[in-house]
Amino acid sequence: MSTEIIKQNPFQSMIDRFNIAADILNLDESIKQKLQRPEKQIVVNFSITLDNGTEKNFEGYRVIHNTALGPSKGGIRYDTAVNLDEVKALAAWMTWKSAVTGIPFGGAKGGIICDPRTLSKTELERITRAYTKALADIFGPEKDVPAPDMGTGPDEMGWLMDEFSLVHGKTIHAVVTGKHLHSGGSLGRVEATGRGVSIITLLALEKLKIRPAKSTAAIQGFGNVGLHSALFLYEKGVKIVAVSDVSEAFYNPDGINIPELILYYNLNNKTIKGYPNSVAIKHEDLLLLDVDVLIPAAKEDVITQKNAKDIRAKIIIEAANGPVSSDADKILHENSVLVVPDILANAGGVTVSYFEWLQNSLLESWRIHQINKRLEDILEKGFETVFRVAAKHDVTPRIAAYIIALKKVAETQSVKEVALEAPQFKQN
Ligand SMILES: NC(=O)C1=CN([C@@H]2O[C@H](COP(=O)(O)OP(=O)(O)OC[C@H]3O[C@@H](n4cnc5c(N)ncnc54)[C@H](O)[C@@H]3O)[C@@H](O)[C@H]2O)C=CC1
Ligand SMILES: O=C(O)CCC(=O)C(=O)O
């Protein structure tokens, strides 16, 4: 019999945590059912002409999980592993993330099954425009507002904004966030998720009374989130001893010079492969290093029942969405590993996306220090609230974050439903 543990479904991980928090809140069964399921799941198929002249079909998704707190918000992922269950989980996490941080948005997520590394820029543009056209009735500044996620960035968001504007016959900046500045983007959005991760990491270190300048960290993933998390923590004196991307993982006990690594990455087609000043290690071993902070910043389910017992980090900051599966939660808790959950730890991105959406809607342009200060205030407040609720209910920070989010969304959803059911009186 195989001893291989089956990879946990990220949607199931979301539901497992949801159920624990819902039971503590004593949530009504009907509202529980409603909040577990997405409001809408859309599958689109479209084809584009590749650069070599052939036609290729692509499948894409957009899942709107919940809109009780506001227009749905969430990134679009380009990856070969994209599937509906993954997008459903990511969409629900967006709902809880906005609720925990007090951002007036609901949750959504999208994705296209493709490998962006093998597609040219013009092919990516055609894919993005075709996907946008197929979803032109779903997106909208007051309806559903996409943003970047794995495999996408300001280019894709700019094309989406342009295509949506073409369909609607006018320029509509606020339909998407994470755009280039010249397309109506906000200062600070590119680095916002990593900045948020660093703010949360420093707060977690403080909780365990570890001085940043005496601490060590390992970071999995060196894309938008991993790179900026590494840079900001390096600037605060944290010694980053290991980093990885999909091509390579490496270790340097004396600490990696992150600005130098970023220079190397930019000169080498956005990969860290072959960086000289360190020792190559196995990808999976990065997660098991004896460090103060482990920052998974790549993808879901990298810490599971299989390796959780071997984790030696004191703190895990979930920079990625869903890097720890629910079957690993108990093991980590029993081993006193402090896990700061994704729906708080990586909320810096959606927070500055909210600022971008506000600036677009108000035709304003904010200064960077104003943006960073507001971001810091929101995340500090989120962190304090999560840890206060965790202490009150004697639960992990993750379950505390779910309690806060579910309570807020359930209350708003219930009020809306009562209003819908109320008899309509005719006015004279
Ligand atoms: N971009 C954003 O603003 C936000 C992203 N996130 C989450 O953060 C995570 C990363 O997203 P981005 O940085 O935007 O994506 P990205 O596409 O910019 O970077 C992903 C990185 O992960 C690496 N990677 C992939 N598989 C790996 C593996 N097996 N081992 C090691 N590294 C691996 C890639 O090589 C790349 O360096 C995702 O879970 C995403 O949902 C969360 C909040 C906001
Ligand atoms: O910036 C946003 O609106 C959403 C970013 C995102 O997809 C996420 O937080 O997972």
Which parts are unreliable, with pLDDT below 50 for 5 consecutive residues or more?
A: 1-6
Using the alpha-carbon principal axes, give the shape. Answer: globular
SSE pattern, N- to C-terminal:
HHEEEHEHEHHEHEEHEHEEHEHHHH
| β-strand amount | 15-25%
Structure annotation, total helices: 14
The CATH homologous superfamily of the largest domain is called NAD(P)-binding Rossmann-like Domain
Largest sheet geometry: 7 strands, mixed
Question: How many E-type strands?
Answer: 12
- The overall average pLDDT, rounded, is 95
Radius of gyration equals: 21 Å
CATH class (first level) name of the largest domain: Alpha Beta
Percentage of residues in helical conformation: 40-55%
Distance between the termini: 75 Å
Describe the model.
This protein is of the alpha/beta class. It folds into two domains: 35-187, Rossmann fold (3-Layer(aba) Sandwich); 191-345, Rossmann fold (3-Layer(aba) Sandwich). The chain is built from 14 helices and twelve strands. The protein has helices spanning 10-25, 29-36, 84-101, 121-134, 154-168, 189-207, 224-235, 258-267, 283-286, 326-334, 342-345, 348-362, 368-393, 397-421; strands at 40-49, 55-66, 72-79, 106-113, 144-148, 216-220, 239-244, 249-251, 279-281, 293-296, 315-317, 338-340. A seven-stranded mixed beta sheet has the order 9-8-7-6-10-11-12. Belongs to the Glu/Leu/Phe/Val dehydrogenases family. Keywords: Oxidoreductase. Residues 186-417 form the Glutamate/phenylalanine/leucine/valine/L-tryptophan dehydrogenase C-terminal domain. InterPro entries: Aminoacid_DH-like_N_sf, Glu/Leu/Phe/Val/Trp_DH, Glu/Leu/Phe/Val/Trp_DH_C, Glu/Leu/Phe/Val/Trp_DH_dimer, Glu/Leu/Phe/Val_DH_AS, Glu_DH, NAD(P)-bd_dom_sf, NAD_bind_Glu_DH.
